[in-house]
């Protein structure tokens, strides 16, 4: 008998891809539910974060355990991130050296200003938080979850990337600038002052952000996240000046990383 082929069905590929995409998204939601402050979670907590039935959540946790992405403590009935995460984390840091380099600077800045410090990178669509140092002595501590995606034009860190990245690398930015002269003026101000400030009226939190460059390309933004009572507005506050100084130091270190000992690039 000859080879038998199956007629192509329009849209069939997309239908097969959709469940696969949903599977990846759900697995990512489970893994991102763990934080430094919540390193262990119960199945009920993971089910709530996933927004599905307990049976569905259990099916995903089982698959993640088999891949060493999750661990399960039988005595405590709690899940935590598995050893494979350490391998992936090391690979991610190797691909983004700014994360490792920025760490000691962020810790020093936290000690100096006693406020939460956040580092974000650009993922091609928006700013994503990759490191948070919030070991402050404040009675009210502001924290941000690692992995949080920030608005391109409404967050201080997103605006830094919009200001310094080539316009074509920020999806939809040209259209937004055409529709909003205020946004265009704000980005021009950020380029001049190298500080972006954002104070949403709804939550009493103030964020100031500054760019970190490598070969004149913004590879990260660093931000101070605090209450409006502890950090004054404007780009000339002590916290803003300390932030600019630290990001300049990181930029300088990244520049040195790009050159060989003999002085060649």
Topology:
Layout: H1 12-32, H2 43-50, H3 54-66, E1 70-73, E2 78-81, H4 84-95, H5 97-113, E3 116-122, E4 127-133, E5 149-150, H6 156-164, H7 173-179, H8 181-193, E6 196-198, E7 205-214, E8 217-227, H9 238-257
Antiparallel strand pairs: 1-2, 3-4, 3-8, 4-5, 6-7, 7-8
Helix pairs in contact: 2-3, 5-9, 6-8, 7-8
In short:
By secondary structure, the chain is α+β, with helices and mostly antiparallel strands. Helices cover 45% and strands 18% of the residues.
How are the strands ordered across the major sheet? 5-4-3-8-7-6
H/E series: HHHEEHHEEEHHHEEEH
Summarize the biggest pleated sheet: 6 strands, antiparallel
Unreliable stretches (pLDDT < 50, length at least 5) are: 1-10, 12-16, 260-265
The average pLDDT score comes to 84
Structural class: alpha+beta
Work out the strand percent.
15-25%
Helix content: 40-55%
**Gap from first CA to last CA:** 64 Å
Molecular shape? globular
Would you give an account of this structure?
The protein is α+β, with helices and mostly antiparallel strands and 265 residues long. The chain is built from nine helices and eight strands. The chain has helices spanning 12-32, 43-50, 54-66, 84-95, 97-113, 156-164, 173-179, 181-193, 238-257; strands at residues 70-73, 78-81, 116-122, 127-133, 149-150, 196-198, 205-214, 217-227.
Features:
disordered C terminus, six-stranded antiparallel beta sheet, 45% helix, alpha+beta, 18% strand, 265 residues, 9 helices
């Amino acid at each position: 008998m000859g080879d038998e082929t199956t007629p192509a069905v329009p849209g069939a590929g997309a239908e097969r891809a959709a469940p696969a995409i949903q599977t990846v998204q759900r697995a990512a939601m489970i893994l991102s539910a763990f934080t430094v402050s919540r390193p262990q979670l119960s199945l009920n907590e993971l089910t709530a974060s996933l927004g599905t039935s307990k049976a569905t959540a259990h099916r995903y946790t089982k698959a993640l355990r088999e891949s060493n992405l999750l661990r399960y403590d039988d005595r405590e009935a709690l899940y935590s991130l598995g050893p494979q995460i350490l391998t992936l984390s090391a690979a991610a840091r190797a691909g983004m050296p700014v994360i490792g380099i920025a760490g000691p600077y962020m810790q020093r800045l936290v000690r100096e200003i006693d406020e939460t410090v956040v580092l974000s990178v650009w993922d091609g669509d928006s700013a994503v938080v990759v490191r948070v140092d919030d070991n402050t002595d404040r009675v009210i501590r502001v924290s941000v979850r690692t992995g949080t995606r920030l608005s391109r034009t409404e967050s201080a860190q997103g605006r830094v990337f919009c200001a310094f990245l080539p316009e074509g690398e920020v999806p939809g930015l040209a259209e937004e600038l055409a529709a909003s002269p205020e946004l265009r003026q704000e980005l021009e101000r950020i380029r001049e002052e190298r500080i972006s400030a954002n104070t949403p009226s709804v939550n009493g939190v103030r964020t100031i952000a500054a760019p970190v460059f490598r070969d004149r390309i913004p590879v990260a933004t660093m931000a101070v996240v605090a209450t409006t009572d502890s950090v004054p507005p404007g780009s000339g506050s002590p916290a803003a000046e300390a932030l600019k100084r630290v990001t300049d130091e990181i930029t300088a270190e990244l520049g040195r990383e790009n050159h060989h000992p003999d002085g060649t690039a």
